[in-house]
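cron nightly-structures :: item 1 of 1
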Amino acid sequence: MPRRKSKRGSVALGFVVTLGVLSLLTLALLESNPGITVVQMPDKLPTYSGFLQRYAPSDALQVSFDNLTAIRAINQSVISKQQFFELDEPHVSMNTTAIGWRLTVGLSTPNATVTVVTLDASSFNGASAALTSAGSSNLIPTDRIGNVTMYAAAGRLSGEAQAYWLAVMPADRTLLYSLGANDALQGLKHIVNVYLGIVPSILSRSDVDRMLYAVNGTQGHLALGIQNFAGSVRSGNATLISVDSDRTSAYISYVVRFADASEASAHVGAVKSTYISAHQFFQFGELVKAVEVLPGSQLKVAVGLVG
């Protein structure tokens, strides 16, 4: 008699086939990236400028920009009124109310962080005069690049003694400072060299310009941050965060850069799972953008994300 085929084997084979079909369907759905809008990048990008161009170097590890004037115009409580800067010799003390905007640049080589702030006329003139007088009187050490003088001064941060290197730029009414000794001086020189055109700015990089294109450039944002490393999305190469507001809502855009467009498509799921509160997703070539909307009352939280 012919041997009867095992029903168990048929059932197992059917299960494998069904599982394979479902897996292929799932893969097809993931590949099509439902819920994401694909945007064509132009062949020629707009030219961007502003303070990122003048002070942020192309090799910056991290850049954070806050437009404090614009933030205050929307919600004064977002920026705490407190002392942010104090020097003992020469004596200079400043409150956050004196700042118009703030740019913080993190460097890996040298290991330093440089802060650039615009000041109101009274605060800038007072700080500039005090540093110039102390430097010319040899009360504090100085260094020089081109026509820019850098000053070493002792100060305080949160009540603790702190060494600073500082410079002032009258044309922009900016104060530049870095905490520390030699690394701080080298970091400050690096930023000054961007201002002098000796070191290329971060806006000379086409990959950064492409990220900026995804958030409509450098102008008009309440806050803007660039991380030139894998951030929250570990498979990404860099992340840009921008914060905007229409008074009733705060809009946070996260732009994650991948190696190429194929990598970006393959990691849309990673972006979605990282920014689970986002409600819109876009792909610009190698970039994936997620947009999150918060109530205007949470503007402080949104701005804090930039760093």
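cron nightly-structures :: done
The chain has a mean pLDDT of 89.
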